[in-house]
Structure formats: structure tokens, C-alpha cells
Amino acid sequence: MENKLILDGTRVAAEIKEQLKERVSSLTTQGTIPCLATVLVGEDPSSATYVKMKGNACEKLGILSKRIHLSAEITTEDLLNTIHELNQDENVHGILLQHPVPSHIDERAAFEAIDIEKDVDGVTSWGFGQTSFGFGSYPSCTPAAIMAIMDFYDISIEGKHAVVVGRSPILGKPVSMLLLNRNATVTTCHSYTQNLNEIVKQADIVVAAVGKPKFIQGDWIKQGAVVMDAGYNPGNIGDADYEECEKNAGAITPVPGGVGPVTIAMLLKHTVDAAEKKLENK
Ligand code: NAP
């Protein structure tokens, strides 16, 4: 990798979707239309936008989008009942519960209620365990997207020092596991990490998953390092300071147009995978 690479997530997503078209069409002719159920609780505008984008992306590809919108007033039990119904529904192949749900709801219990076969967003602890062990189910979509972009651009992972900033269950932790399974040496940082900048300076691969705009500074980036910015903050701003990080990076994802579009493509891919598995097991 000699020249600087701007890692074009829109292009990667387009290629993934192109490959999915044929699979969706083959499933459909066999009488199985892949279907993703999205569950939105409450009226949070960003969550509503994300769910709408995911549903629309499904429909563009011929995947059914079953959109469930529940009132912010529902109880944990109501939400669990909805998830149980979707688990039972033979025509639903994947379930996405948009996060965050209102704070009075036990979000973890709701995630755990999703059938492992339909956990296309990799949110259950069982799914996380399988991801960590390197087999089975679907990893969370953003970590899967980060890996897909690096693979698309042939970025070498084995033996590299990857520093992940963030340890959330849907992002920092699973991407750390995926990198570890690919033989990177992984350091996972969080809000208690001391001398963060010194640690990031040692990284060959930096994953920004911190939820703070422009948090990763340009002078923390080692010359030639790969910067994967999963951040998505209001105003389309990433968790890395793109203009400054780009100066030292050998490869970097922009925001927007980096990890975001590939995250949606991975959700579609996992839904199609789930529909194929269901058909095979019929
Ligand atoms: P999150 O649940 O809020 O987790 C943030 C993580 O960052 C936590 O582990 C936290 O540490 C760590 N952190 C916070 N302040 C820190 C500091 N000063 N130094 C080091 N670590 C610090 O966020 P998330 O859901 O993982 O999301 C992270 C980012 O990814 C956000 O910008 C979000 O919008 C974006 N995102 C994008 C997509 C996509 O499709 N592109 C999908 C999901 C999320 P503690 O654990 O110690 O609190």
C-alpha cells in the first residue's frame, strides 16, 4: 500500500448489493422472499431516519421490509411480545431492533429475546459469543462493515497492531474480536484508558468507535496507519478528525461515505444469508 487510499464505502456497498441482487432473485423464484423486520420504539428522529434508510435499502433490492413502529409508552413486556411474535413468523428472516430504545425499557432483555437464527444485527450475547469464537452467526453490522472494507481494499490485518477506541457491545467489542480472529494484536481502549494518544500512536490500524466528533486527533496517527472511522455524529461528522488524520494515514474512511453505507449493506447481506439458511433447512 504505497499511495494514500480513501476507502470508498459507497463503492464497497454498491458491490455487495450487486452481488446480493442475484441471490435475492434466486430465493424469490424458489418462493422465499427475504424479509427483514425492523422495530422502532418511540419517536427519536435519528432512529426513525436510520430505520427508514434500512427499510428502503431492503426494498430497493427486493427484500421485504416489515416495519413495526411502537409507541414510546410501551413496556418491556410489550416489546418482548412483539419480538416473540417475529421469532415465530415463518416469513421473517431477520429482526432489527433499532437502538436506543426509551430508557424505561430493558434493552438488553429485548435484544436477548431475538432468535439467534434471526439475529442479523448481531446484538444477542449468544451471537457475540459465536462472533468471538469465530464461527456461526452474524457479527454486528458495523464491525462486519469495517472488516468488509479492509478486505475489499486488501488491507493486511495479520500481525498488525489494531487499536480500537470504544468497547460498546455492538461496535468496539465485536470489532476487537473480529480483528483478533484475523490475527491482529488488538488493544481495546475506553473512557478509563490512560495515555490514549500514546497508544493510538502505536497503531497500524485505528478503529474510531467512541461517539465523540473529531475525537481522534491527526497527530495521534502513525505515518501510513489505516484509520477506520465508525463514528457518525450530527452534521455527518466522524469520530476522527478527518482533515488532520488524513495527512498521516495510509488509508482512511471518510464520513459520510465510509463505514455507514457498508453497515447497511451488511444488514442486507445477513438477511439474505438468513433466508438462504432457512430455505436450506426446510
Ligand atoms: P457508545 O455505546 O456510546 O460507546 C462509546 C465507547 O467509547 C464506550 O466504550 C466508551 O467507553 C468510549 N469512550 C467514550 N469516551 C471516551 C474517551 N474519552 N476515551 C476513550 N474512550 C471513550 O457508542 P457506539 O454505539 O459504540 O457508537 C460509537 C460511534 O459509532 C458513534 O459515533 C455512533 O454514532 C457510531 N455508529 C455508527 C454506526 C454506523 O452504521 N456507521 C453504527 C453504530 C454506531 P466506556 O465503555 O468506558 O464508557
UniProtKB/TrEMBL annotation:
Pathway, per record: One-carbon metabolism; tetrahydrofolate interconversion
Domain Tetrahydrofolate dehydrogenase/cyclohydrolase NAD(P)-binding residue range list: 140-278
A GO BP annotation: methionine biosynthetic process
Signal sequence range: none
Catalytic activities: (6R)-5,10-methylene-5,6,7,8-tetrahydrofolate + NADP(+) = (6R)-5,10-methenyltetrahydrofolate + NADPH; (6R)-5,10-methenyltetrahydrofolate + H2O = (6R)-10-formyltetrahydrofolate + H(+)
Similarity field: Belongs to the tetrahydrofolate dehydrogenase/cyclohydrolase family.
Residue stretches making up the Tetrahydrofolate dehydrogenase/cyclohydrolase catalytic domain: 7-121
Keyword Amino-acid biosynthesis (UniProt): yes
The protein's name: Bifunctional protein FolD
Molecular function GO terms recorded: methenyltetrahydrofolate cyclohydrolase activity; methylenetetrahydrofolate dehydrogenase (NADP+) activity
One term under GO cellular component: cytosol
HAMAP family reported for this sequence: THF_DHG_CYH
